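Bit of a strange request maybe. I'm writing a small parser for structure token strings and I need a real example to test against, not something I typed by hand. Could someone generate the tokens for this chain?
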Amino acid sequence: MQAHIVKSFDTQIQDLKDKVAQMAKACETQIESATQVFSRMDISLAQDIITADERINQFQREIETEAVQFLVRRQPMAADLRLPLSAIKIASELERIGDYTANIARRVIKLSQKPGPEQAERIIKMADISRTMLHDAINAFLELEIQKAVEIWKKDDEIDNHFSRLMEMLRNQMQDQTHSIEDCTQMIFMGRCLERIGDHITNIAENIYYAATGQTYISQFKMRQP
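Reply from user aminoacidic:
Good idea to test on real output. This should exercise your parser:
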């Protein structure tokens, strides 16, 4: 994005981008903390994650307010218009990510015992992939890097593959060990939360692509298909 004659214009754009980055970092920390909660069965940290979700909600409100004020005062055009609109949408996706990490923490609290190593490994891998995706996504947003956004969009398949394998393992366990149905159900919900986090991050990547190009990645991808 080119610099503008009025420096305060660029300052406001950068402030908005920085606020989105701060919100994303808070979500990244929540995902990392959720992994620790699950690995250690740390109920105290689980409660901290649930409480911290309110700060993420506050970030969303602040970003929406700043973006709307920018739109009203500056009445931007083209790429300058797309960025604040994308910031609002990305903040909404991040708010949902925050909700899902809090839900994971709530599910851990309901577990009666530590999960088996295979199930735990799948859930931890899903969380690690999603955290990396989110970290890369915010870097792509700050620089509006199209190729990084595309790479993030494609990486969601890894989360989906782990989730499919997790579901298969948990279904088999519930059939063989009926006493573990409640715990398996909690892990299914955790896996579903992480799968949805991956989807929200791909939505963020889509918004980055739109902010940079004015096109949706999916429409461009379909146009290139034979």
